[in-house]
Each structure stands twice: as structure tokens, then as C-alpha cells.
Write a sequence for this structure.
């Protein structure tokens, strides 16, 4: 998402600094936790085969408004302000029964506007494709996100100044030894964040 910075539910500080991005993987970890509990409750129900794979689809939508600081990007000084918009997630979760991997994948679409203190503003859309595999027997969690933002930068007079494009690929693998669904110190075995931010 424009790599909207949403400080929610923890994320690696390096990734946050590099992208100013809304922290989808941690949001997804929260979804994983909630869906895991729901799925385990479903598994406890009678009639489930001992070798079954359970597949559930879900969608959610929320509005948000939050502070935004893009001064470290090519937008430069004055690029602080407020970001607001609508975040829509559509995903599928697959659980292999019993005790198998938990696989969550889907798409996160964000329609947003950022109003900067210098009068400029951004309007556009971010699309994030995410894939998370939680293997509780390992224990290991692997997350991969691909972000693409296409937005237009406007001047204080409302005239378009040109397109802003943000593209990012993130991958994290960690051994979730304490079961909190968060990458803690000493647990991370791979952490990659590649971001391209272009301005007019």
C-alpha cells in the first residue's frame, strides 16, 4: 500500500523504515491467529475426516485514517500529513488436518488519499498479493508479499504533477518457537525487502 505506514501489530523495523509501508504481513498474522482459532474450533466438530483439508474463503473491509511521513522518499520535505482510505482484503485459508500446514493467501486492495502539510496530495490504489504458510510442527512461518501502488501526485492548486509508483517485494521466514506469530530476535532466518519508489 502506498506503502501506507500503519503501525499495527508489530513488524520488522527495517522493513518499516525502508518502505513506509502499511504493515500487511503483521495484519495477516493477526488474521492467521484468528482464523487458526476458528478453524481449530471447526476441526473439533464431529464428522471431519482424519485426512481432510479444510478450505475457507473470507473477505473484509475497513476504513482508516493515520499519520503519514514520506519525507525520506523522493517526495522530500513537506511530505508529512494524513493518509485515509478503504482497505479491502479477499483471501483463502487452507488447513491440512490434523496438525498440517496452515496456508493463507489473497489480495489486499487499498484505495487511498494522502494529504501533505505542504498542500500536495496523492490519490490512488495499492494492490498487495500475500502468501503466508504456517507450519506448526516445524515451527516455521514463511511470508511473501508483493506490493504495487499506482497513484497521482497533485500540487496545492489541484493540478496533477505526475504519477508516483511504488513497487515492493518482501519475504520473511522465521522459526516461531514461542508461538506468538511474530518474528522475534533470534527467530528470523530470512528477511528480504526490495522497494522501488519513483516520483515525477
Amino acid at each position: 500500500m502506498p506503502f501506507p505506514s500503519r503501525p499495527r501489530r508489530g513488524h520488522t523495523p527495517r522493513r518499516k523504515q525502508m518502505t513506509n509501508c502499511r504493515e500487511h504481513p503483521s495484519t495477516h498474522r493477526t488474521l492467521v491467529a484468528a482464523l487458526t482459532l476458528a478453524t481449530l474450533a471447526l476441526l473439533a466438530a464431529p464428522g471431519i475426516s482424519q485426512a481432510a483439508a479444510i478450505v475457507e474463503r473470507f473477505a473484509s473491509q475497513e476504513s482508516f485514517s493515520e499519520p503519514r511521513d514520506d519525507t525520506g522518499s523522493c517526495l522530500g520535505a513537506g511530505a508529512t500529513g494524513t493518509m485515509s482510505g478503504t482497505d479491502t482484503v479477499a483471501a483463502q485459508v487452507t488447513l491440512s488436518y490434523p496438525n498440517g500446514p496452515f496456508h493463507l493467501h489473497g489480495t489486499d486492495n487499498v484505495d487511498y488519499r494522502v494529504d501533505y502539510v505542504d498542500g500536495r496530495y496523492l490519490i490512488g490504489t495499492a494492490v498487495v498479493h500475500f502468501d503466508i504458510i504456517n507450519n506448526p510442527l516445524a515451527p516455521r512461518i514463511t511470508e511473501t508479499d508483493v506490493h504495487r501502488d499506482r497513484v497521482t501526485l497533485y500540487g496545492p492548486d489541484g493540478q496533477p504533477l505526475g504519477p508516483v509508483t511504488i513497487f515492493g517485494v518482501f519475504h520473511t521466514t522465521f522459526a516461531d518457537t514461542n508461538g506468538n506469530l511474530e518474528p522475534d530476535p533470534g527467530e528470523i532466518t530470512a528477511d528480504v525487502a526490495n522497494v522501488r519508489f519513483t516520483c515525477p
Remarks:
- The CA atoms of residues 89 and 108 lie 4 Å apart.
